[in-house]
Amino acid sequence: MTIDTIIQIGFYMFTLLCLVKPLGYYMAKVYQGKFCKTDGVFGIFERGIYRFCGIDLEEDMAWQKYALSVLWFSFVSIVFLYILQRLQNILPLNPQKFSGISSDSSFNTAISFVTNTNWQGYSAEISMSYLTQMIGLGVQNFLSAAVGMSVLVALIRGFVRCSEKTIGNFWVDLTRTVLYILIPLSIILAVLLVSEGVIQNFNPYKKIQMIENPEKIQILPMGPAASQISIKQLGTNGGGFFNVNSAHPFENPTPFSNFLEMLAILIIPSALCYTFGFMVFDTKQGWALFTAMMIIFIPMLFLCCFFEQQGNPNFDSLSVDQKSGLLQSGGNMEGKEVRFGITNSAIWATATTAASNGSVNSMHDSYSPLGGTVPLLLIQLGEIIFGGAGSGLYGMIVFAIIAVFAAGLMVGRTPEYLGKKIEPFEMKMSSLVIIIPAALTLLGTAVSVITKNGVNGISNPGPHGFTEVLYAFSSAANNNGSSFAGLSSNTVFYNIILAIAMFLGRFGIIIPVLAIAGSLARKKHVPVSSGTLPTSNPLFILLLVGVIILIGALTFFPSIALGPIAEQVLSK
Amino acid sequence: MFTIIKTSFKLLLTFTILTGLIYPGIVTLFAQLFFPVQANGNIILKNGKYVGSSIIGQYFTEPKYFWGRPSATSPDPYNAASSSGSNQGQNSPELIKLVFKRINILKKADPDTIKPIPIDLVTASASGLDPDISIAGAYYQAKRIAKERKMDEAKVYDIINKNIKQRQLGFLGEPSVNVLELNLDLDDETAAKP
């Protein structure tokens, strides 16, 4: 671990920490309707949208209607995105004359982007037209993130409200998220990225004559990349404008653009912790969850850096130099870019899988067995260490509920969280939230490794091949979207089975979470007494971390043992 | 139920226009107005010809040029229209074979240099289009270039040092050397000499 590594990690964490409170405060004001008064001068856009769509600002929804709105809105989005891809060949803004996307790939991508997974089964620069990227994939980058954040806000209202049947208005939450949070942040980030060299144009692909041999032509892809990259980082989407995502020099040209994009991965999920604390009138609760996330995140980050810096033991006997020094970063450079080196590749890999972003700036498939376990494990913990925009924190709150319940069992008292009694209904729903993605991951992996169609996609031999499949299903079921990309997943089998995993992994969680919100909103607040378990002190934070690791380890240790651990043991 | 579906349609339409057309439009406007070079791909114009983008690597095989990272794009290396990494795991027999081959090619082109080869010169980049090599990777090739171009080795080192990009803001990223710009400078240097 060099001093440069520590400085870069320190600077990254420090900048992130500085932004949590201001952005979190701002978002809380937006959700409380106090930032931009809808009836004021600047509310004109918002009012216009409501009038056009027939939305009643005053309406308050019960959890069932909120959930139904989420489902229908997402369903309509999936259908639209599917049709758009199928018909892109007859639509405008397709300078490369790409044909329509195949039905199974369109199905997979439509579900992938609407569920905020952004798994890239396709290779963008050889298949997607500018129009599809903009009004299809780009739009869902905004909307899927906004849906997650809206569901989180509904859950927060469940804790705040007292003896009420309703948890807010989905349309209003969604509209405000996009208008006041996502669009302004995206514009700022996109322009900064362009200044560093991320492309943003509508030109056809450019042919250039190569320097060594002018007879040879290199075709440079073009397109409106920056506008899409900024929202895919901010909205924890992760679907790149190009095949190799943010490893592509046009998508992530410099260390500074890399820093901005890495910051964008974690900024909204982190700041939402503060928003949560602010909205439940106790910011310490938000900081407690944030601290728990950090306690898991930081060691993982250093582990990943450490393992990747070790280099490949298979090359030790060859005449190569893998040591880090003043003239090179050294380490395991297969699948990594020189400008990022080991440090920035490892920070990115850890951040993108802690958050359910899934964009990459290095190829996770080429990581060392133990280095690659870090991203895999972070996904499998359930995308709650920061997690997706909104979805990460509602997952974390569910874990807090379980931690409170576990503590309640130990001392024999009815558990409470934020003044609400946690009863069998909440516990049943919380269990669903934990079990569904875990079951999808393990079952999907099992089915794939025993069927011919599944095994055919594997590219690396031995335990590493198993890890490729395990990673794919972990990523899909937890809506991350990164991959061990050696797996050839653009096949009918994987497109369909992964799409099902993504769909159930998203909505199989949103519905129970909204049910918890509805149930909590109906309850009265229990006054704090000497028997109340404090949920913002270090003891509770450690308990929460323990619960997360215990559940994750118990569920996934056997499969990790078969994959990366077996590989590590077998390698020299 | 019907109202929900209708609202879903209208809201999706609204946001498709807002975030799918207006938003990229605004960003493009800013980009083309303030950063036209960057927004269009940092294309290098030389003697009236477009010879490349300064941030996308090209394939160099002749010994008189600095070589970049190995590239796993298909069908040819450095195919910018289809970016890709190798996705080979650390213990992949394929990878070990390839690295062996790359070492041999480098050694054969330059039997005089006996120091170990910097790792970035024998491992494929993530994008297949990495424009950079490490400083060590450039220094390693200096002797070969000097011999092929009949230049002073010190002169080659000068050109490398001129092209070193230090960490951004002093601490971000890794120091690197842009292979394309390095080779263009080399060509200029050779052309200037009679």
What is shown here, in short?
The complex is a heterodimer of chains A (572) and B (194). Chain A is mainly α and 572 residues long.
Describe this structure as you would to a colleague.
The complex is a heterodimer of chains A (572) and B (194). Chain A is mainly alpha-helical and 572 residues long. Chain A contains 17 helices and five strands. Chain A has a domain at 391-570. Chain A is 62% helix and 2% strand. In chain A, the strands form two sheets. A two-stranded antiparallel ribbon of chain A has the order 1-2. The two termini of chain A are 22 Å apart. Chain B has 194 residues and is mostly helical. Chain B has two domains: 1-40; 58-192, no CATH class. Chain B has six helices and six strands; from the N terminus they run ααββαββααββα. A three-stranded antiparallel sheet of chain B has the order 4-6-5. A two-stranded antiparallel sheet of chain B has the order 1-2. In chain B, helix 4 (135-149) runs antiparallel to helix 5 and helix 5 crosses helix 6. The longest helix of chain B has 33 residues, at 2-34. The N and C termini of chain B lie far apart (82 Å). At the A-B interface, helix 1, helix 2, helix 3, helix 5 and helix 6 of A face helix 1, strand 2, helix 3, strand 3 and strand 4 of B. Strand 3 (320-321) of chain A pairs parallel with strand 3 of chain B.
Count of the separate structural domains of chain B: 2
Helix content of chain A: 55-70%
H/E element sequence of chain B? HHEEHEEHHEEH
Low-pLDDT stretches of chain A are: none
Mean pLDDT of chain A: 95
Low-confidence stretches of chain B: none
Q: Topology as H/E string of chain A?
A: HHHHHHEEHHHEHHHEEHHHHH
The most extensive contact between chains is:
A-B, 131 and 108 residues
Which structural class do the helices and strands of chain B define?
mainly alpha
If helices are DSSP runs of H or I spanning 4 or more residues, what is the number of helices of chain A? 17
Beta content of chain A comes to under 5%
E-strand count of chain A = 5
Number of helices of chain B: 6
End-to-end Cα distance of chain A: 22 Å
Distance between the termini of chain B: 82 Å
